[in-house]
Amino acid sequence: MKLLITGLNGTVAPWVHREAQTRDWDVVGWDRRAIDPANDAAALAFLRAEAPDAIVHLAMGSECWAGQLADFARRHGAAMVFVSTAMVFDASSVGPHRPDDPRTARDDYGQYKIRCEDAVLTADPSATVARIGWQIAADAVGNNMLRHLDEQHARDGRIRASSAWRPACSFMSDTAAALCDLVQEGTGGPVHLDSNALEALTFDQLVLNLGKKFERDWVVEVTQDYLHDQRLVNENGGSMLPPLSVHLS
Fold first, then answer.
1. Among the four given CATH numbers 3.40.1280.10, 3.30.420.60, 3.40.470.10, 3.40.50.720, the one describing domain 2-134+168-193
2. What phi-psi label fits residue 129: left (phi over 0), alpha (psi between -120 and 50 degrees) or beta?
3. Predicted confidence (pLDDT) per residue in 219-244, tens digit
4. Which pLDDT tens digit goes with each residue over 23-52?
5. Which part of the chain is CATH 3.40.50.720?
6. What 8-state DSSP symbol labels residue 45?
7. Which terminus of the chain has a lower count of CB atoms within 10 Å, N or C?
8. Who's near 221: CB < 8 A, 6+ residues apart?
9. Are 176 and 19 in contact (CB under 8 A)?
């Protein structure tokens, strides 16, 4: 298996890289300093030269790039997994959210991800769109919940955590394994990856549990200032990921 990963300088992609290596896959990254995705000829030449068996698209970039990758995958029989976000659902939407629920994002980021999803599935209807929530890892780097909480506490001397918010979230190791599974077994269309789908921890509960696990002496102020059941479930109401309690117990 030869896997092309975009976004290797990001948060989740390095975890996917490591997971793929444990499966003895050959991994190649897309270096945008060398190959500009906006240069169609150069991008296509790179894809043809590498001839990947599968693509996992994690990088930020235009919807045109996402569509180009999906079109290449369709034309060459490669598996395509585009990593999207729970943010395609606005907080005004009643969760938990299922893959075919209307996408209601109002903010720029959520609307951008919707455009990318549409570009991918238009170019390759057999592609998989994997929506994920906030990611957690012990190293606390990148767009990571633990890093955010550490920074908030260092700045404010406390963490405000809403008991009215049930976030979509998972540990990065579990997300990476699930994305690699989707490369091998994905059936196409939107799929939801959320370790909080069934246990439904509120944000204040999650913060307290993370503080215990990672030995943080956080001061936590419980609020109700953000109301949203953000959880991502699949059509059967279940989850493809192990529950948070596997890590937090």
1. 3.40.50.720
2. beta
3. 999 999 889 999 999 987 778 899 99
4. 999 999 999 999 999 999 999 999 999 999
5. 2-134+168-193
6. H
7. C
8. 158, 159, 160, 161
9. yes
